[in-house]
Amino acid sequence: MNPAAKLSRAAWPYPRWIAHRGAGKLAPENTLAAFRLGAAHGYRMFECDAKLSADGMVFLMHDATLERTTNGQGIGGALPWHALSQLDAGSWHSRAFAGEALPTLEALARFCLANGHLLNIEIKPTPGTESATGEAVARLAARLWTGAAVPPLLTSFKPDALAAAQVAAPLLPRGLLVDTFWSGWLEKALALDCVAVVANYALWDQATVAQVHGAGMRCLSYTVNDDWAAQHLMALGTDGIITDRVDLFSPI
Fold this sequence. Notes:
Elements: H1 3-9, E1 17-19, H2 32-40, E2 45-52, E3 58-60, H3 81-85, H4 105-115, E4 118-123, H5 130-144, E5 153-156, H6 159-168, E6 174-178, H7 185-191, E7 196-200, H8 206-214, E8 218-222, H9 227-236, E9 240-243
Parallel strand pairs: 1-9, 2-4, 4-5, 5-6, 6-7, 7-8, 8-9
Antiparallel strand pairs: 2-3
Helix pairs in contact: 4-5, 5-6
């Protein structure tokens, strides 16, 4: 049995509650300020988005383009890290976060490791760089978390990115992200030796939860911001909930 499958069948090392992009919408997403705020609300695990700069630096940002969450323009992955590091990634959110920088994955890793926090790294490639991004994120994560008690969970909507991560760092656990249960999704998750399927929360029902659990994987959900939805998912027996509402849900 491969290490990832062993993890899925063993005691699950990750908490149920995962703070989306650090602190949901309470701080500028994917910034160190957001992860600090999520931690201040008691969260022990965070989700982040990782992509590659033009010169190969792994940094945190969700969108392919810079406009929504920085004062830059154009495709983030087309710029070298020096240019990206100069951008303001906080003013768009509020004055209190003006000047907040885009962080590297390494900076977030050091914060998490120093404080005992866990991480779900979504591999978020700039279109056309799926394999390169998956490989780079996995290699870096394997190095940064060497010897850690609990490794980061690598997830992606892009099977090619997960496949590259699987080759680069086969011992790191992986999860397939889906926004619909497309034809062959379960077989693809199994082929990638995934420990989890991370689905839009509205997709889960008793049958799909049983299907994933029966295949030896865990069921995680995004992005859950209403109490009724959280209660429904817990009643179904799902294993993890990614939320923006770090101010509403107690992770304890």
